[in-house]
Amino acid sequence: MKYTGNLVLFGFMGTGKSAVARRLGAFLDRPVIEMDELIEEREGMTISRIFAERGEDYFRERERELVRELASGQGKIVATGGGVVLDPANIRDLSREGLAVCLTARPEVILNRVAGESHRPLLERADRLETIERMLKSRKSCYEKIPHRIDTSGLSVEEVADRVLGLLGNGE
Ligand code: S3P
Q1: Closest C-alpha to 35, from 62, 7, 14
Q2: Which residues in the chain come in under a pLDDT of 70?
Q3: Does the Cβ of 122 fall within 6 Å of ligand 1?
């Protein structure tokens, strides 16, 4: 089987979307689109600066615009930003031409993975674990809209990529 649609990875920050997307892109020889990187490139500033100078609503508008662009076309691997699910239209549009997979992880695992990083404005707080738990809870129903979910907590990037390929059938 040759899978021709898009492959879209959703999930909270630190669930492995970018690393798994890169791995899948290399394995399947497909272009990888990292939504946050593309927004940074287009806006000419980092996500942190966009949040600080333009605000979250502005960022969500840019995110929505990009989803509309990415929804069509085939054969690419998309790593979304963790908050893209906040607008149900984003899930709908990105799922239209492709396989949508939501990566999940336990809060402590997420905390570990984002430790030492400072490019996520929503986690720039002293009470990071509580923030992660609170956000996961408030976004639970959003992530649950995505039919396929993979808990990445105890898995390597390669193992997660293999499971995504398994969802495609026989991994091409
Ligand atoms: C966000 C997740 C981030 C980035 C922005 C907001 C969120 O992407 O889009 O900081 O609301 O969960 P990653 O999930 O790639 O870190």
Answers
A1: 62
A2: 1, 170-172
A3: yes
